[in-house]
């Protein structure tokens, strides 16, 4: 039998062995880590060509998964000098042609789990020893001239489309509701490649506005509008946004008939209109002068200027319209930032040419002179431009264009107020006669607009007026290509 000391040593080693077994068993029972998500920071970023950007990744999951990831660039057609290293350092080539790319971080533990970051790539602006003044310091007419704004295109029936059937009695604007796909960067790049330099992006807000008294606008709606507006800017296009089918007498709320016949209704509608424009303007107040606001679309009482109520007393509804344009101007200016001097586009009743030339149409008072632009829509003669009559081109029809545009020149352009035809046709006729007349119409109307200092903006609805393929940004067919060419050549 050993000594007491030997006995205690044996006991000590037995305790160590049991403890080790317990620890070993506990370790063997622990579950392996799993990965549920990988987040990349920053999630969105702008990087100048020739510069670098560092990214980090956070791996989340169960049982403390490893934070190691592999970095890659999703796009295969990037410049070879655009790379990302194993530490997440992105280097953008000085001659990179891509405008957007995606950085991806994939978990080394579970390669099916990854996160992404969207990178916007911009050019380096060369320093100018004598920089041009802020474009917003110019009056609108000078700005239009300096920027060479000659011809534009409408993204019709897209952000202005409205779903009236999914939730009867509760219509809501929905980008694909009228059959067009969602807008993309490729679409705007294509529009620019045809020679257009300004786009009108009609926007309907119905269904995305909260209840009184705040009338809060859904942030996701504002964000999507901002995304589409940025497509235009990325492509080198000026852009216009507005309040569009909210004035629909079928499902809208911006109703001039109710406002002109009921004082309390007018107060409620005007308050909603003001709150909506205040929020839109606040969201975009730091955007450059390339973004313009248009107060409304085709405001009328349901009968396009032919109702007995309007014809017997047009001043009653004109007073409402003029006030709404003033409320719009005041609301935008009050948000500050670049909105203080932003160019604002003002329509008259139904955006009808004659109503725009009417003495009843009064431009808003503005804190800065020269910042307002007048707009009207031109679909005359309606049976050709908007209907099925295939013939156009008589001397009488040409004279009508010449005389009307001359009146706009004298009243507005000659008084340093630029004019935009916010929408104009004509429809895409199916017959050869109609197609030839369409080219003749475009050549004369657009050419005369250029002569009188007016900027025409073609109405493309993706349907009967469709000219640009919404998926590719290229003309739909040979005739559409010829029509685009005629628009650009006659407005140079």
What distinguishing features does this structure have?
19 strands, 13 helices, TIM Barrel, 492 residues, 4-stranded mixed β-sheet, 19% strand, single chain, alpha/beta, 2 domains, 8-stranded parallel barrel, Immunoglobulin-like
Summarize the structure.
With about 500 residues, this protein is an alpha/beta fold. Helix content is about 35%, strand content about 20%.
Please provide a written account of the structure:
This protein has 2 domains: 34-122, Immunoglobulins (Immunoglobulin-like, Sandwich); 139-491, Glycosidases (TIM Barrel), CATH 3.20.20.80. 35% of the residues lie in helices and 19% in strands. The chain contains 13 helices and 19 strands. It has helices spanning 4-29, 140-147, 185-193, 219-234, 256-261, 263-284, 308-312, 314-334, 353-357, 382-385, 395-411, 432-451, 478-491; strands at residues 34-41, 44-48, 52-54, 56-62, 69-73, 83-84, 89-91, 100-107, 114-122, 152-154, 162-163, 172-173, 198-201, 238-242, 291-294, 344-347, 372-378, 419-424, 454-458. The strands form 5 sheets. It has an 8-stranded parallel beta barrel. Strands 2-9-8-5 form a 4-stranded mixed beta sheet, with no helix packed on it. The protein is globular, with a radius of gyration of 30 Å.
Assign the CATH class of the largest domain: Alpha Beta
Individual helix count: 13
| Share of residues in helices | 25-40%
Give the strand tally. Answer: 19
Q: Using the coordinates shown, work out and report the CATH topology of the largest domain.
A: TIM Barrel
């Amino acid at each position: 039998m050993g000594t007491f000391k030997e006995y205690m040593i044996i006991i000590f080693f037995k305790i160590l062995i049991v403890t080790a077994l317990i620890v070993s068993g506990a370790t063997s029972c622990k579950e392996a880590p799993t990965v549920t998500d990988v987040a990349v920071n920053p999630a969105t970023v702008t990087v100048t060509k020739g510069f670098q950007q560092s990214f980090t990744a956070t791996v989340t999951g169960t049982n403390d998964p490893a934070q190691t990831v592999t970095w890659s660039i999703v796009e295969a057609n990037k410049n070879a000098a655009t790379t990302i290293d194993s530490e997440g350092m992105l280097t953008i080539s000085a001659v990179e042609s891509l405008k957007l790319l995606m950085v991806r971080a994939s978990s080394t533990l579970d390669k099916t789990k990854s996160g992404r970051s969207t990178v916007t790539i911009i050019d380096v602006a060369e320093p100018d020893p004598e920089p041009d003044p802020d474009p917003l310091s110019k009056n609108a007419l000078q700005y239009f001239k300096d920027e060479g704004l000659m011809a534009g295109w409408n993204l019709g029936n897209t952000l202005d489309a409205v779903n009236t059937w999914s939730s009867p009695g509760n219509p809501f604007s929905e980008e694909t509701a009228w059959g067009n796909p969602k807008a993309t960067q490729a679409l705007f790049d294509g529009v620019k490649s045809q020679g257009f330099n300004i786009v009108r992006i009609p926007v309907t807000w119905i269904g995305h506005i909260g209840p009184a008294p705040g009338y809060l606008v859904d942030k996701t709606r504002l964000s999507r509008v901002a995304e589409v507006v940025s497509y235009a800017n990325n492509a080198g296009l000026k852009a216009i946004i507005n309040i569009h089918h909210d004035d629909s007498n079928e499902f809208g709320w911006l109703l001039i008939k109710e406002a002109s016949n009921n004082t309390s209704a007018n107060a409620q509608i005007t308050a909603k209109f003001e709150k909506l424009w205040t929020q839109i303007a606040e969201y975009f107040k730091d955007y450059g002068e390339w973004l313009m606001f248009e107060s409304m679309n085709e405001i009328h009482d349901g009968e396009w200027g032919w109702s007995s109520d309007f014809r017997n007393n047009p001043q009653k509804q004109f007073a409402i319209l003029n006030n709404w344009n003033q409320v719009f101007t005041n609301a935008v200016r009050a948000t500050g930032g670049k909105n203080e001097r932003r160019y604002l586009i003002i329509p008259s009743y139904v955006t009808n040419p004659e109503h725009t030339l009417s003495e009843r149409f009064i431009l808003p008072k503005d804190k800065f002179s020269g910042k307002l632009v007048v707009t009207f829509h031109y679909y005359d003669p309606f049976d050709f431009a908007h209907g099925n009559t295939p013939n156009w081109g008589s001397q009488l029809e040409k004279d009508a264009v010449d005389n009307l545009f001359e009146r706009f020149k004298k009243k507005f352009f000659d008084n340093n107020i630029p004019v935009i035809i916010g929408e104009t046709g004509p429809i895409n006729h199916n017959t050869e006669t109609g197609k030839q007349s369409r080219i003749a119409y475009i050549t004369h109307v657009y050419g005369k607009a250029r002569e009188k200092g007016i900027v025409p903006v073609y109405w493309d609805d993706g349907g009967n007026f469709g000219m640009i393929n919404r998926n590719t940004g290229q003309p739909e067919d040979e005739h559409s290509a010829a029509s685009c060419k005629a628009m650009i050549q006659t407005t140079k």
